[in-house]
Design brief:
Elements (H helix, E strand, L loop, with lengths): L1 E3 L2 E4 L3 H12 L4 E5 L10 E3 L5 E3 L4 E3 L3 H9 L4 E3 L5 E6 L2 E5 L2 H6 L5 H17 L12 H6 L2 H8 L3 H15 L8 H10 L3 H5 L9 E4 L3 H11 L3 E3 L5 E4 L4 E4 L4 E4 L1 E4 L3 H4 L3 E3 L4 H8 L6 E8 L3 H4 L2 E7 L6 E4 L8 E8 H7 L4 H16 L9 E6 L18 H5 L10 E3 L12 H20 L1
Bound molecules: flavin-adenine dinucleotide.
Flavin-adenine dinucleotide binds next to helix 1, strand 3, strand 17 and helix 17.
Length: 456
């Protein structure tokens, strides 16, 4: 079956759906072709046996993420505050700390290590200021910082083992990669797109990093898809894209789409699995080979009630023992059910992603008992998790990251159209890289590029 359109968008995540929506709102015949039998990609909601929802993918939105907030507002989707009333539990280098706030937990590190950590945050802020917003490869120290892993920078920066351990422990939960996986340049660039490291690490005591939880996050994507109606085609994985001077042909096992332009709105490593004719420029092809997705398993543990709140705990935990790197209270602030959400990230996730859900459940519950020193954590009423690396249309999460050396070698190609092919996805965003907001921005930007070409 062959159909003819103005634009084909590959991928029905937030980036692709936003591209399709912008194009159709401009009167352009665009279709969104999605591999899975659902839309949303990494914004993926599970409806539980308890009549509520849990989020397997993205769930938090920040006050300055105006693109995702615009859709939440347009479709009247609920958000709720993050429960954060009570003490924070933190384990660093085997030592357990219970402090009123997250920053207090960092300041409580022994001797000079607390102030050393705060000085490192200031040094990071100075480095981030040197990164140009859209072209990190042009930063004054780009070559040096891209050749150096974040681990190398850490080894040079820290003198006290506790400060170093505390900083290293923060990274996998934010980047879903270890400090040895990413370059110092990417570390700075990612934080730069979010407004600073304090924004992604939750360090801000001034509240500008405050976030809310979206209730049923997938309904954002579903609402856009409902609006697009039969312009969204699920269950059609794109395998090949051919272009010539006149048109582009997008192939799936059952259909061929002919169009003037295509927007590829999938993570780079998945874009690299599509065949292209003619072959893509070398730098673009190399970029897709050098951007693995992060490694994460997201876990949900449910109890009859949130008993930790009565014991004075917020549910926020940061741990360098594992398997979970971070836990948060995931219940409504006024809710009666006890819910914790945890993230197994980076090398912890490499160890746990391929184990059975039952094995992970036992380990996560043991971890909670030991962290809170409370046997009541031993008896949850439910456990759910999602291992993203084994999902063939994600191959990991939260996003793709360039390996060391990649930004200076190939980043010119990240958004550069190749003939009739345009690129979107959260990894192409210059604001809120790797986030839902960045994904939506990227789809809108790719739609603008095509409108501009059509009007030229
Ligand atoms: C555990 C987890 C927690 C997260 N937490 C947050 C958070 O709290 N806040 C936040 O803002 N972000 C968060 N994120 C990140 C956020 O979910 C993503 O950045 C965003 O959803 C990415 O959207 P996208 O459209 O760029 O990519 P995707 O969501 O990956 O969409 C790509 C789509 O393309 C499809 N596809 C792939 N290959 C093909 C093909 N060959 N043919 C057709 N279709 C194809 C996929 O099925 C998918 O639907 C989280 C992600 C995860 C997994």
């Amino acid at each position: 079956m062959t159909t003819i359109h103005d634009v084909v968008v590959v991928g029905g995540g937030l980036a692709g759906l936003s591209a399709g929506r912008s194009l159709r709102n401009a009167g352009i015949d665009a279709v969104v072709v999605e591999a899975r039998d659902r839309v949303g990609g990494k914004s993926y909601t599970a409806h539980t046996d308890y009549g509520d929802v849990v989020e397997y993918g993205g769930q938090w939105v920040g006050a300055d993420q105006e693109h995702v907030l615009s859709l939440i507002d347009a479709f009247d989707i609920d958000t709720r505050p993050q429960y954060d009333d009570g003490a924070v539990v933190s384990r660093v280098a085997g030592q357990r700390y219970v402090e009123p706030t997250y920053m207090d937990a960092l300041r409580a590190l022994p001797g000079e290590s607390g102030s050393e950590l705060l000085a490192a945050f200031e040094e990071i802020a100075r480095c981030i200021k040197q990164i140009p917003g859209a072209r990190p490869q042009n930063a004054p120290h780009a070559d040096e910082w891209d050749a150096m892993t974040l681990q190398t920078w850490i080894d040079q920066q820290f003198e006290t083992p506790e400060a170093q351990a505390a900083f290293e422990r923060m990274i996998p939960g934010i980047y879903t990669a270890d400090p040895s996986d990413i370059s110092f340049l990417f570390f700075c660039y990612y934080a730069r797109t979010a407004g600073g490291f304090h924004m992604v690490a939750g360090l801000d005591e001034e509240e500008d990093s405050h976030t809310d939880v979206v209730v049923d996050v997938q309904s954002i994507a579903q609402s856009v898809a409902d609006e697009l109606g039969d312009a969204v085609h699920c269950g059609h994985p794109v395998t090949r894209i051919e272009q010539d001077d006149d048109s582009v042909r997008v192939q799936t096992p059952e259909r061929t789409y002919t169009a003037s332009y295509v927007v590829v709105a999938v993570p780079p490593t998945l874009a690299g699995r599509i065949d292209y004719e003619p072959a893509l420029p070398a730098a673009r092809d190399e970029l897709m080979q050098r951007m693995p997705n992060g490694t994460v398993v997201k876990c949900h543990v449910r109890y009859v009630d949130p008993f930790w709140r009565d014991s004075g705990f917020s549910g926020l935990v940061e741990d360098d023992v594992g398997p979970v790197n971070y836990f948060f209270d995931d219940g409504h602030p006024d809710g009666e059910t006890g819910r914790l959400v945890g993230f197994i990230c980076g090398s912890n996730a490499r160890e746990w992603a391929d184990k059975s859900t039952d094995e992970r459940r036992v380990a996560v519950i043991d971890q909670l008992v030991s962290l809170f020193d409370d046997d009541r954590f031993d008896t949850p009423i439910d456990y759910l998790d999602q291992s993203w690396p084994s999902d063939p249309y994600s191959r990991g999460a939260y996003h793709g990251y360039p390996t060391p050396g990649t930004m200076t070698a190939c980043w010119d190609a990240i958004r550069e159209p190749v003939g009739r092919i345009h690129w979107a996805g959260a990894e192409t965003a210059t604001r809120w890289y790797g986030h839902m907001d960045g994904a939506i921005r990227s789809g809108r930007r790719a739609a603008d590029e095509i409108q501009f070409k059509r009007s030229a």
